[in-house]
Amino acid sequence: MKYLLENNAKPENPKQSWRSFFDLIVVDTRKPLFFGEGTVLRQVDTFTGKLRIGTYTGDLQHGTVYSGGSSDIICDLLDVKGKDILYVGDHIFGDILKSKKRQGWKTFLVVPELNKELQVWDQKKSLFEELKRLDVFLAELYKHLDSGSSNCPDIDVIQTRMKVLTYRMDMSYGQMGSLLRSGARQTLFASQLMRYADLYSSTCLNLLHYPFNYLFMAPPVLMPHEALSLNSADVASEFTVTNNMLTKRNVKMLLSNLLDIDEARTVLLPRELNLYQERAGRNLLSLSHTHTHTRSLSLPCCISAHM
């Protein structure tokens, strides 16, 4: 902290102790115990680094360093409620989930991998858009069918294409794939992020791009039945699918009109498909028609859908 806040002071400004920049300083909190019963709160001797004997029970002293304590004690010292605290952490379980459930703190998750995710997404988002179109197209194939229908459309070609697109997206992020997405589906980490983190970004320094009184508001999120009602007219105008039995030839003809890329004529890509099937037997095919939409703020901070 001395290196960050004291050694880089400007000559025209008087040198200040790094402790003067903070209202409360707590060390050795022993998470996740800190978010539960906690430990004994003690003062730290800043000259010797040793703990003073006894439990500290007084008021908050500016510039004093404390050791231990709990999330309840922190709220009492600062005289605030849980919703008044923005907790910044980089661990989805040890930081974000615990602080959200225990105290109801507002949470900011630091995801350093987000820079790479954004870079690849900007380059390969056309693959995701194609996956979305194929997903909607599959829904339209079954739109006029019910439990009494005897004929079922042949969707092998569409499923194969979706697998190839998913494989391409995964490989764009490297051997380990994306941290947040697998094809058209979110990873477990992404779903936990959206549920427990109110804000997330690659670094907490990105908050400097916003004024101190900025109001972060969650975007409106439609439930599946609401999205279905809203999008039904748009989908109907974009696709026209009959009740007739679809053959592979007909599907390929429909796909050639649906896809916006040059490879629409050669939907089957054996080499890429074989590579895809060799990857640990993962089932990355998304047949769900219920999507969760979130709005990203102007970079570099993003807001979750539940804040």
Round the mean pLDDT to the nearest integer and report it: 76
Distance between the termini: 32 Å
How many β-strand stretches?
Answer: 9
Shape annotation: elongated
Low-confidence stretches: 235-248, 260-298
What structural class do helix, strand and pairing data support? alpha/beta
Task: Provide the succession of SSEs.
Answer: HEEEHEHEHHEEHEHHHE
Q: Strand share of the residues?
A: 5-15%
| Widest sheet: strand ordering | 4-5-8-9
Pfam family, one: 5_nucleotid
Protein name: 5'-nucleotidase, cytosolic II, like 1
Organism: Etheostoma spectabile
GO molecular function: 5'-nucleotidase activity; metal ion binding
Question: Describe it for me?
Answer:
- Mean pLDDT is 76; it is low at 235-248 and 260-298.
- The strands form 3 sheets. This protein has a 4-stranded mixed β-sheet, covered by helices on one side. The chain has a 3-stranded mixed β-sheet with strand order 1-3-2, with no helix packed on it.
- Helix 5 packs across helix 9.
- It is elongated and about 80 Å long.
- The longest helix is centred in the middle third of the chain and has 28 residues, at 114-141.
- The chain has 9 helices and 9 strands.
- Among the domains are: 1-80, HAD superfamily/HAD-like (Rossmann fold, 3-Layer(aba) Sandwich), CATH 3.40.50.1000; 106-145 and 154-208, no CATH class.
- The chain is of the alpha/beta class and 307 residues long.
Indicate the topology:
Elements: H1 2-5, E1 25-27, E2 42-43, E3 65-67, H2 71-78, E4 86-89, H3 92-103, E5 106-110, H4 114-141, H5 156-172, E6 181-182, E7 185-186, H6 188-196, E8 199-201, H7 224-238, H8 248-258, H9 270-277, E9 301-303
Parallel strand pairs: 1-3, 4-5, 5-8
Antiparallel strand pairs: 2-3, 6-7, 8-9
Helix pairs in contact: 3-6, 4-5, 5-9
